[in-house]
Amino acid sequence: MSPSRLSSSQLRSQSQTWRWRWIWIGFFLCAFAGIAWFFVPAFIIRPFRYQAPRALLVAMSLRQRAPIGTLIAALACFILAFALWKISSRWGKALLTFTLLVVTFSAVMARLNYFEWMFHPLPGPQFLAQSESKLGPREMIMSVRLGGDDRAYPISQMAYHHVLNDVVGGVPIAVTY
Amino acid sequence: MWTRTIRGRVLHFYLAGINNQNFLMRDKETGTWWQQITGKAIYGPLQGAALDLVLGDELTFGQWRTESPSGQVLAPVAKYSKEYDPNWEPEVAKLPVVISFPGTELKSRDVVIGLTINGAARAYPWETFAKQSPVLDRVNGTPLLLVLGSDGKSFRVFVARIDGHDAEFFLQADTPVWALLDTVTASQWNFQGCATSGSAQGKCLARIPALKDYWFDWRNYHSDTTIYKH
């Protein structure tokens, strides 16, 4: 049957089918963007894996924009899913729900620093007089002397926290290990 | 250790990721990404900026305590006490590496002391250094003195120059207190690089920042580094 023979109601239903298809495609594109925005950098920046310079650049640039990018993608997904919900079968609804869950997870994770779940930061560090410290004499420390202040950072502690923002002798410094 | 004031602005850093086993940090103020070992901004609004190195030491607590009677020590946080591993060094040494440099005589996890003099980098294999200390060397025209403390763990690097004259230093064998002797003034020097007796008494040698690091990490960020041989 050639298109010219289609009745107007048939034409309308065909164009509607295409409209839904486009909405589905749009939904999956949004979902892909939202999910990739968190998972691609997370995959590239994993411990004990090689980070190629270009891949690292991609990871940092995605992660930099991930909080806003994943949010926009998630909002778009929710709007399209709302439109698709009425016409979807039970399986379609299950697929929409699952995808929305992953997209939401991605948007939440893009706002959280999971590296600090593994290695907790140390805001407001406390200090002891050296005579009160229980460190053994052969334990290693990093030390700094600035403006009359003399501070030691045990490496066993720094190897866990990794970064410490401190002010020594009035100078703001970052202790890193 | 780095200063964290850039263009008049104080930054606060946090751990943000890992780049071939050297960690990445970001600052809360701009979100810029910084490489820990180089202190350079590698991505973000401050890209291209570099933090200034703060001269620090890696010492045993015992050595530091004798030098810093009024010093303060970072207090351990009770809830993380299980995470503080006093045996971190052999534990880390067992971890796999993701980059290697097969053309060199050192193994990835060999410990080196790395330093840079006006852009020229050199690595001193820890084993060689510990065996030979005090090590005298010259990098980019600067005479250097690398010294291992009496505890066999603390180390420092100095410019081996007294009042503009290049000097050699030797470990004094016949004293109860650890001391170096120099060949120019025959003065005694302590581990802080200051003369405690002799005509140089009261003078101190200039310090050179140096980093104790794994070879693979040092080599990765200093591709033109030379290796000390003797």
Can you give keywords for this protein?
heterodimer, A: 177 residues, alpha+beta, 2 domains, two-stranded antiparallel ribbon, two-stranded antiparallel sheet, 5 helices, 5 strands, 16% strand, rod-shaped, B: 230 residues, mainly beta, Rieske Iron-sulfur Protein, four-stranded antiparallel β-sheet, four-stranded mixed β-sheet, 4 helices, 12% helix
* Annotation field: number of helices of chain B: 4
State the major sheet of chain A: 2 strands, antiparallel
Overall CATH architecture of the domain at 111-227 in chain B: 3-layer Sandwich
Tally of DSSP β-strands of chain B: 22
Helix content of chain B: 10-25%
* Strand ordering within the main sheet of chain A: 2-3
CATH topology of the domain at 111-227 in chain B: Rieske Iron-sulfur Protein
Low-confidence stretches of chain A: none
The greatest inter-chain interface is formed by: A-B, 64 and 62 residues
Class computed from helices, strands and strand pairing of chain A: alpha+beta
Quote the distance from N terminus to C terminus of chain B.
30 Å
Q: What overall form of chain A do the CA principal axes indicate?
A: rod-shaped
Going by helix content, strand content and strand pairing, the class of chain B is mainly beta
Short description:
The complex is a heterodimer of chains A (177) and B (230). Chain A is of the alpha+beta class and 177 residues long. Chain A has helices spanning 8-44, 53-85, 90-109, 115-118, 155-161; strands at 127-129, 140-146, 149-154, 163-168, 171-176.
Can you walk me through this structure?
The complex is a heterodimer of chains A (177) and B (230). With 177 residues, chain A is an alpha+beta fold. Chain A has 2 domains: 3-112; 130-176, no CATH class. Chain A contains 5 helices and 5 strands, in the order H-H-H-H-E-E-E-H-E-E. Chain A has helices at 8-44, 53-85, 90-109, 115-118, 155-161, and strands at residues 127-129, 140-146, 149-154, 163-168, 171-176. Chain A has a two-stranded antiparallel sheet. In chain A, strands 4-5 form a two-stranded antiparallel ribbon. In chain A, strand 4 and strand 5 (171-176) form a beta hairpin. In chain A, helix 1 runs antiparallel to helix 2, helix 1 (8-44) packs parallel to helix 3 (90-109) and helix 2 (53-85) crosses helix 3 (90-109). The longest helix of chain A is centred in the first third of the chain and has 37 residues, at 8-44. The radius of gyration of chain A is 27 Å and the shape is rod-shaped. Chain B has 230 residues and is mainly β. Among the domains of chain B are: 5-43, no CATH class; 111-227, Rieske Iron-sulfur Protein (3-layer Sandwich). Chain B contains 4 helices and 22 strands. In chain B, the strands form 6 sheets. A 4-stranded antiparallel beta sheet of chain B has the order 4-5-6-7, with no helix packed on it. In chain B, strands 21-10-11-22 form a 4-stranded mixed beta sheet. In chain B, strands 17-18-19-20 form a 4-stranded antiparallel beta sheet, with no helix packed on it. In chain B, a hairpin with an 8-residue loop joins strand 17 (169-171) and strand 18. The radius of gyration of chain B is 19 Å and the shape is globular. The chains are: A alpha+beta (177), B mainly beta (230). The interface between A and B is large, with 64 and 62 residues.
